[in-house]
Design a protein that fits this description.
Elements: H1 36-39, E1 50-62, E2 64-66, E3 77-90, E4 95-111, E5 118-126, E6 130-141, E7 145-156, H2 187-190, E8 198-209, E9 212-222, E10 230-231, E11 235-248, E12 252-265, E13 269-270, E14 273-274, E15 280-293, E16 297-311, E17 316-318, E18 321-330
Antiparallel strand pairs: 1-3, 1-18, 2-17, 3-4, 4-5, 4-6, 6-7, 7-8, 8-9, 9-11, 10-13, 11-12, 12-15, 13-14, 15-16, 16-18
């Protein structure tokens, strides 16, 4: 294999609320998806500089209710769809930059404030745009093995509509099923943006040996105070797992990976008051299928199912499962 491992820039992680990766968009794409030619298939040196574009979809089903109070309906849920449009520029074989633009669509069913009927609603529009730079710190690739270590840093911009956060303000005069006593979904869950500038830090390691590969990533979101004095708590997330290239030749490769993912987030605050339904931690497991073709196209789809969770004592809806898919083109 060539002694060049070409980094694929990361999709930004803009984490808010207990729904990690699911308020303003985003996930990290593997830093080896396009250089999956190395990690997930035939390795070929790519020419720099080049542009790349991605479309990624993340669907999360929130219909598992925690800490249900007396009188509250169990027929409450949120369905969250985030479609991300990414345009990036690979400056050289180590440094890349990109912009991530999420479009968010959420629909939900909650109980009204009187606890007498169900109320259906939706929230959709532009999410918080992110800008990130990615740098390969170290790498090596030999005939049968190789590794890459990358670091990333960026900023999330307050471009999404954060108006629903007004429902969270203490003593607010606004009345909505989203801030009622029988609702499992709050304004912070369906707001399209946070109204804050946030920092993003990440690092990851990719290893490969013959047809086997292994990835490990850690991401940290540093949150600022946003609209109406609401501050989403900082969040740490990680993913790791082994994979195997089932099919491999000079033109394409098909790989299967088993991933464990984890999220840890503290409690949000609103005007200095700590909330009781936003902190939590979870571990999920699931498969991921990856396909690469030539040097120009890659696709992946993954399923995440929580297997261990712990949440705040407040009434809330938490993920039952999450589906992710992405297509990436280099040109």
């Amino acid at each position: 294999m060539k002694n060049h491992l070409i980094p694929f820039s990361l999709i930004i992680l803009a984490i808010t609320s207990t729904r990690a990766c699911d308020t303003c968009g985003c996930e990290f794409c593997e830093p080896g998806v396009l250089n999956g030619l190395s990690l997930y298939g035939h390795s070929t040196a790519l020419q720099q500089p080049y542009f790349f574009a991605s479309v990624a979809e993340q669907f999360t089903d929130y219909d598992t209710l925690k800490n249900v109070p007396a009188g509250a309906s169990l027929d409450q849920f949120e369905r969250s769809s985030i479609t991300q449009f990414i345009l990036g520029y690979q400056i050289n074989d180590r440094l890349g930059v990109q912009v991530n633009v999420p479009y968010i669509y959420r629909w939900y069913r909650v109980m009204n404030n009187a606890g007498t009927a169900m109320d259906n609603g939706q929230s959709d529009g532009l999410g918080d745009v992110s800008v990130v730079a990615n740098y390969i710190v170290a790498r090596d690739e030999q005939a049968d093995w190789g590794y890459t270590w990358r670091v990333s840093g960026g900023v999330k911009l307050p471009t999404g509509d954060s108006g629903l956060l007004a429902l969270e303000a203490p003593g607010t005069s606004l009345v909505s099923p989203l801030n009622g006593p029988f609702s499992a979904i709050g304004g912070h869950d369906v707001a399209l943006g946070s109204g804050s500038y946030d920092g993003i830090l990440a690092t990851g390691v990719n290893l490969n040996w013959q047809r086997w590969f292994y990835t490990a990533d850690a991401d940290y979101a540093i949150r600022g105070t946003g609209s109406f004095g609401y501050r989403y708590a900082n969040e740490f997330s990680w993913s790791t797992g082994p994979g195997y290239r089932l099919i491999e030749n000079d033109d394409y490769a098909l790989s299967l990976q088993l991933l464990a993912t984890g999220e840890y987030k503290g409690a949000d605050t609103v005007q200095g008051t700590v909330t009781n339904d936003t902190a939590g931690k979870s571990v999920s497991l699931g498969p991921k299928v990856l396909f690469t073709w030539n040097q120009h196209f890659t696709a992946n789809v993954a399923l995440e199912v929580p297997v261990a969770t712990h949440y705040d004592p407040g009434f809330q809806a938490v993920p039952t499962y999450r589906l992710k898919a992405a297509l990436t083109f280099r040109f």
